[in-house]
Every structure is written in C-alpha cells, then in structure tokens.
Amino acid sequence: MGGTRAVALLALGSFAMGTDAYAMAGLLPDIGADLDVSVSLAGQSVTAFTLCYALAAPVLSAVLARWGTRAVLVAALVVFVLANSGTAMAGSYAGLLGTRALAGVGAGLFTPAAATAAVALVPPERRGRALGLVLGGMSAGTVLGVPLGLLVAAGSGWRAALWLITALGLVALLGVATALPPVRGAAAPSLKDRIGALARPRVAVVVAVTFTQTVASLGLYTYLEPVLRSVADVGSAVPYLWVWGIGGVCGSFLAGTLVDRTGRPARLAVTLLGILGGALALLPWTAAVPGLVLLPLLVWGAVGWAFVVPQQHRLLAHDGGAAAVGLNSSATYLGGAAGSALGGLALAHGLDARLLPLLAAGAALAGVLFHLTVAGRFTGPGPHLTDTAHGAGAAGTTAAGAPERNAS
After folding, report:
1. DSSP per-residue letters across 43-75
2. For the chain: N or C, fewer Cβ within 10 A?
3. Which residues are CB-neighbours of 217 under 8 A, at least 6 positions away?
C-alpha cells in the first residue's frame, strides 16, 4: 500500500478517536437518564476516559517501545473497538466507567503511534502533510463525527452513537491490520526521560500552564449541553457543538502560521489563554440575543485548540524535545480529567450550570496570571519561556500548520 493510502487509514482511526472523545459531552443527558444517574455522575465517564488517556500514553508507549509500530496500532484499535462496544452495551454505571476508561487506554496508545507511523511512511518532504492529515482526523471528528453521532443518538438512542464509533474503529482496525506496511519510527521517550524533563523548571512551568488551560476548556466542554440549556434554552446542542468544532479546526491550522510569522510563541500562548478566559466569561451573558452564543463558542473552539501549538513549539525548540512534549500532552488530558471531575462535583452540589463558564474563565485567567508572574523567574539568558524571534522554525508545527499533538 502506498504511503498516502496508509496515512489515510491512520487518519480514519484518529477520526474515530476524536469522535469518541468529544461526542460523549452531547450524550450525557441521555446516558444519565438511561442508567438512572445524574448528568454530573455521567460526566465522570469523560473523566475516566481522559484520565486513562493521559496515563496510558506515556506509560504504555514506553512499555511497548520494543513492539513494532504496526503491532502497537493494531493492539490499540482492538482495545478501542472492544471498549466502545462495551460502552454501547453497558447496563450499569460501573460498566460505563470501566469501558470508558478502557477506551481512553486505547486512544492514548493509538494517537502517538499513529503519528510515528505517518512520519515513517512518507518521504521527508511529505512528513508535515502526513502528520497534518492524521492529526486533522482527530479535529475533523469534532466537526463531522460529533454532530453525526448526536444525530444518530437523537434518532436511535445514545447506544447507537457508540456503535457508530465502534464501526469506525473496526474499519480502521481491519485496514491497519491487513494493509499497513511494517513501520518502525523513533523510540518513544522512556519514563525516566519524561520524569527528568518535568524536573526542569522551564518545562514544568509550560506544562502547568497547559494544565490550567485544559481544566478550563476541556473541563467545561464536558458539560456544554447542560450549560447551553441553562444559558440559551437550546433544544439541541448539535449545531453549537458543530460551531465549536469548526472554530477548533480553524484554530489548529492557523496557530502554526501565527507562530511562524510572529516568532513569539510565549506571547501568543498567553494571549490565546487570555482570549479563552474572556470568551468563557461572556458565554452566560449572550443568551439575551438569539444566536449570539455562537460567537463565544466559535472563539472558544479556535483558541482552545490553537493554544497547544505555541506551547509545544517552545518545548520542542528549546526545552527537552519529545519527552517534554509528551508531558505536555499528558497535562492536556489530565487537565481535562480534572476539569470534568470538578465540574461534575459542582453540579452535583447544586451549582447553577450557567455559573460553570465563569469558573472555567477563572481557571484560564489564573493560568495567565501564573504565566506572567512565575514564568519570569525562569527566563534566564536563553529564549526558553520568553518569545523566540528566530530559530524555532517549524519545530512545533507541521508543514501544514497543524499542531504536533502526537508526542506522548
């Protein structure tokens, strides 16, 4: 099989992963009603997925480093397919949590291996486009897969949406198992390398800021449907999730261009984080004008997905390479797990859903304050946390301008 067709199979797998990760937010009310639990408890299934994603990526990538990349991809997709079919058949809340945790393990193992394979399957001059295609599959899952899954759920129930995701994963599994040529990319960073990178103050500060950003962004996204019902009294969350996803795709691809043109990734990161805080704070106040709530959703999606690009750019260019970027990726999903857990806890204790965006905005602005006050202590003579006017090049972005979300 040619490199382009093989990469397309990996992109299909990423599409299934993106759909699975983000569609659950729109399914929580139906899942809660079916399993007789509150939306806040159902939301802990997202916590289970993201937490296991964050932990599985670094641990399993290191443990299975001796396996061939194709073998890792096949194993990851098998776990993913079995887990999602288990979710579709879950008859209890415990079963839901267990299968979502297992799905997170599969997704966390697949994503970095798919990026490694994409780079290995094509000539050097096409690696950026190949990586962009695989990573674009995940963001496309939020634009196409999530609305499709929610439409299927509206007509046939939430379990049908999980069977759709299972089918997508199964097609990717069959394609990878039968048509993907043997590939072997660079060895994954060891756990020792990852821990060593975290011990460096410059890396720790960048990763901590990423954590606060995802507590705000991914944490709030988990409960977007009850927030929208409270803020704007919407009937269906599908068009709103679609707008959020459109913003995310645009932000993912434009952020790389902004980094390359400005040469100031640190400044861009803190600016995006500030804009995110502002968009989230405005969300509860937009219901007075019909349709106006779409604007902060669009901005939120764009800056939320764009933020990772300058962060990873700084880490790859100066502060620890793949091991540091792997930590940043784990911080992304750990932040999402923490945000969804805290949001569910707040709702369970009677917090009005319209206040969740304000709390999320507070987390984002706390990240801005942390960056501005703490980062300066570690900025020494080198361009580690300050803006880099030269030399970073395309270290943290692909040739297509997409973020390198792969290193785990």
Report:
1. THHHHHHHHHHHHHHHHHHHHTTTS-HHHHHHH
2. N
3. 276, 300, 304, 307, 336, 339, 360, 364
